[in-house]
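PROTEIN DESIGN WORKSHEET
SECTION A - STRUCTURE
LENGTH: 267
TOKENS:
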């Protein structure tokens, strides 16, 4: 199997490193292309993959072609790929907001298999959350490969493309919500008199520890109840958050993100 990566930025590099580290692929099976020569040199040094000087060199011989460019670069790339891709290959795209139908239409009348994936930035650390869906011409084997591949940098689930705006709002934007919570907790800690450095250590480690407890599989409700003693400090804080409509605020925030994702996909 041969894999082409079009785009060797942070996410593209993370995916290549993850696949090599998990031994899903050998470095010799991967060839990367990027307009940024420094990025290519970096990924070659880190992952040992091959690099190419242009799209036409790397694409024709690949079984899977990973598109890891920014959404605004997609139209130009699809134009460059026209005539170089066959229906025996499969395109796997992580470009946010770009639907499989748009990519398929760019190659019409060819029936090019397309798999769309929405990963998130923790994939850079091997802890990503990815959603996978197949386009009109994608086969079960293509979906299976994508799930296996993205599981190498975290966890992956299969969902219909109609759910991808919600996925973008929940897991795509989700890390920013956690970082915002970290900012708020650190700010509260400073307001209560804790020094900046120590507050940062306590907040970061608390979030990391809580995330690891969630990863063990127990429901968040159960974990919350375990740490909430009747009449205690945690209960006092949670009652205040409930009274302020904290859950409702989060629901509204996710809805706003989903609506914006829908708007962007139509541009």
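SECTION B - SEQUENCE
RESIDUE ASSIGNMENT:
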């Amino acid at each position: 199997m041969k894999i082409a990566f079009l785009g060797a930025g942070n996410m593209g590099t993370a995916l290549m490193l993850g696949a090599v580290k998990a031994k899903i692929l050998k470095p010799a099976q991967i060839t990367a292309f990027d307009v940024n020569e420094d990025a290519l040199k970096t990924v070659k040094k880190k992952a040992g993959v091959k690099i190419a000087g242009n799209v036409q060199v790397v694409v024709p011989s690949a079984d899977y072609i990973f598109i890891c460019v920014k959404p605004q670069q997609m139209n130009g790339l699809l134009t460059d790929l026209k005539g170089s891709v066959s229906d025996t290959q499969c395109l796997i795209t992580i470009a946010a907001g770009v639907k499989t139908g748009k990519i398929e239409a760019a190659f019409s009348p060819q029936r090019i298999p397309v798999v769309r994936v929405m990963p998130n930035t923790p994939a850079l650390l091997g802890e990503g959350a990815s959603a996978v869906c197949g386009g009109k011409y994608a086969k079960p084997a293509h979906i299976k490969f994508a799930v296996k591949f993205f599981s190498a940098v975290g966890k992956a689930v299969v969902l219909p493309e109609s759910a991808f705006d919600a996925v973008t709002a929940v897991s795509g934007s989700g890390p920013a919500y956690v970082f915002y919570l970290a900012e708020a907790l650190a700010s509260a800690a400073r307001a209560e008199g804790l020094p900046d450095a120590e507050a940062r250590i306590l907040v970061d480690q608390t979030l990391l520890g809580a995330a690891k407890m969630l990863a063990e599989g127990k429901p968040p409700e159960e974990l919350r109840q375990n740490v909430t003693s009747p009449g205690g400090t945690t209960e006092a804080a949670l009652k205040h958050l409930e009274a302020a409509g904290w859950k409702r605020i989060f629901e509204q925030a996710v809805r706003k993100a989903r609506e914006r994702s829908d708007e962007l996909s139509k541009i």
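SECTION C - NOTES
The mean pLDDT is 95.
The radius of gyration is 21 Å.
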